[in-house]
Specification:
about 120 residues
């Protein structure tokens, strides 16, 4: 997978991938969520992503924040982009109140590589 930050951003923001991330966010919001301080959430979830990637036989190419809207609320989600063409949704922040949350389980999202005209 290309690790260029602009390419990864374009991939995550492609319509089909954005839709998959939004869908997974809906599932995550149905789970039990644990509030956490931003620094703690970042460290804990990035370690979790590396462990999950290794278990899948992949590596983490980078971490990226993605803004997603759900039910009139905007969230910033930290996503780990993996070398196997997928991403793991990690911690997220409610942009209205600034609270960070970690989910009970992290969704794995297969990514489609966008075609560039």
């Amino acid at each position: 997978m290309n690790t260029d930050r602009a390419f990864v951003s374009a991939t995550l923001m492609a319509d089909e991938n954005r839709s998959a991330i939004e869908s997974r966010l809906s599932e995550v919001l149905q789970q039990s969520l644990t509030p956490m301080e931003p620094g703690q959430a970042k460290t804990y979830m990035e370690h979790t992503a590396v462990r999950m990637a290794e278990e899948a036989g992949a590596g983490v190419t980078m971490f990226q924040m993605v803004e997603i809207k759900h039910a009139n609320t905007a969230y910033m989600i930290r996503v780990a982009v993996l070398t196997n063409g997928s991403a793991i949704g990690l911690d997220f922040m409610d942009m209205e109140n600034g609270q960070f949350f970690i989910p009970e389980t992290c969704p794995v999202i297969p990514l489609e590589v966008p075609t560039i005209n």
